[in-house]
Amino acid sequence: MTEQDSIGVDRRHVLGLGAAAGATAVLGGVLTTGEPAQAGGPGPLCAPAGLKGRALLPGRPGYDAAVAGFNLVQTPAPGLVIAAENARDVQLAVRLAAQRRAPIAVLATGHQPSVPIGRDAILVSTKNMREVTVDARRRTARVEAGALWTHVLDRSLPQGLTGLNGSTPTVGVVGYTLGGGLSPTLGRRYGYAADHVRSIDLVTADGRLRTVTGANDPELFFGVRGGKSNFGLVTGIEFDLFPVSTFYGGAIIFDGKDAQRLLHAYRRWVRTVPEAMSSSVALMNIPDDPSSPPPLRGKAIVSLRICWTGRQDTGEALVRPLRAIATPLLDMVTQQPYSAFPAIHSDPAGPVPAYERTALLSELTGDAVEALVAAAGPGAPYPITMVEVRHLGGALARQPRHASAVAHRDAGFTLFGAGVTGPAEVPALRAALDRVVRLMRPWSTGGSYLNFMSVDEASTRAVSHAYPDHVYRRLRRLKRRVDPYNLFRLNHNIPPA
Ligand SMILES: Cc1cc2nc3c(=O)[nH]c(=O)nc-3n(C[C@H](O)[C@H](O)[C@H](O)COP(=O)(O)OP(=O)(O)OC[C@H]3O[C@@H](n4cnc5c(N)ncnc54)[C@H](O)[C@@H]3O)c2cc1C
């Protein structure tokens, strides 16, 4: 039997790189340890000795599940997946990548694909690292790299505590937090999730597992919070929780024909609201599909999203003027347990092919509202699934005690467009998303929010817009210090200086 017959892949072309010392052979597409590496010449990419998790090859059992993610626009196709069970596995994967100078990427949920991940790469899957510990007395949570927000909330909410989650609980805590972590429920009150990280366990390109804090390595602590996977692979983080167990909020859905009136009222209203009021408005096109809720099916709508964490009667009084703008199709704003927050946005559960664009807006003027409605309202040339403006400011505008790379804190709003469509419609959808950003350019700060940047916004140049020049230069110097060969480049990349 030839080598190819016995293992189903040609070992010599797994990564086309030399065999690693102390490594092993390929068996049934799953790499196992304990056998000698192929002698001489280019060898297989081998499972590191001591791996507790699995090492998976393309086409073999377990591989497809390991690389699968939320956004189908781009699925990773690495030469090897390390399905890590613990921090030591992540360390072994990084050391293997460093030894071979193979790029290494990380996947938790696949909510934010960036650059393509091909056969020359190693991918660490953190899907089996989901442990969460809540310390109610200290009001902290410690999570492993693959934990989702739903896992945190399952443990914290029964104790009257929550973290600064995003719009959906299916997003990974670590990826979300390292990109900033803009909570549409609690962000304006408490700031970015990254602002409340206490410590980060991180494997850097030299294979070291470090616990990084603002005290022991302020520069690395600065960069990782806002720089995502550019400085290493995180194996766990500890962060603050907040005593919130209810909110007054939800979504009020208006007919698309009321978009202009509502948005004009909204832009005036946001100037007046306290920090405990987080909100956004989304122009949406609901598919004409049996799975859509009957009153909304096939309609252009406007969704006003509200989360108020003060007294209920104050929240009611604050929302009243917006409620009075028009007769809503649905009004779901009410006092609710915090666990009901996912219904505010009703994000898709996935997997979906989602194309996205983003920008930061300095302000929402009358002209900006007109442009937004022209670009994404009911009369727009293409029915984009959703275009949202989310109100920033409040605590989001302030740097925390230990400053982070989460930048552009003076922006007034995020602009985020997303469309879900089949292959034939992709060019039209992309053109429509580009048009939204182009029409809104007069109010754009020129910056971007990293967590909202898509595969179409993953060039080095586009990523640099997530930071002011002086922060970007600082991050590139940090990158030179901790990852001079840019091992961690399969991401929204910041190249070394
Ligand atoms: C439906 C939806 C709703 C969202 N809502 C919000 C929101 O309200 N607010 C907000 O701020 N963002 C939001 N996001 C964006 C989200 O925060 C990013 O997509 C985030 O990167 C998701 O992280 P993940 O680990 O789940 O995804 P993945 O695609 O698995 O990872 C994305 C990237 O995160 C980094 N990363 C993940 N794990 C690690 C690790 N262990 N170590 C180092 N880096 C790591 C890597 O750079 C990786 O490429 C939303 C996204 C979607 C699709």
Automatic annotation (TrEMBL):
Organism of derivation: Actinoplanes sichuanensis
SUPFAM superfamilies cross-referenced by the UniProt entry: FAD-binding/transporter-associated domain-like
Membership in a protein family: Belongs to the oxygen-dependent FAD-linked oxidoreductase family.
Keyword check for Flavoprotein: yes
Keyword Flavoprotein: yes
Protein name (database record): FAD-binding oxidoreductase
Entries under PROSITE patterns matching the protein: FAD_PCMH, OX2_COVAL_FAD, TAT
InterPro entries per the UniProt record, alphabetical: BBE, FAD-bd_PCMH, FAD-bd_PCMH-like_sf, FAD-bd_PCMH_sub1, FAD-bd_PCMH_sub2, FAD-linked_Oxidoreductase, Oxid_FAD_bind_N, Oxy_OxRdtase_FAD_BS
Keyword terms: FAD, Flavoprotein, Oxidoreductase
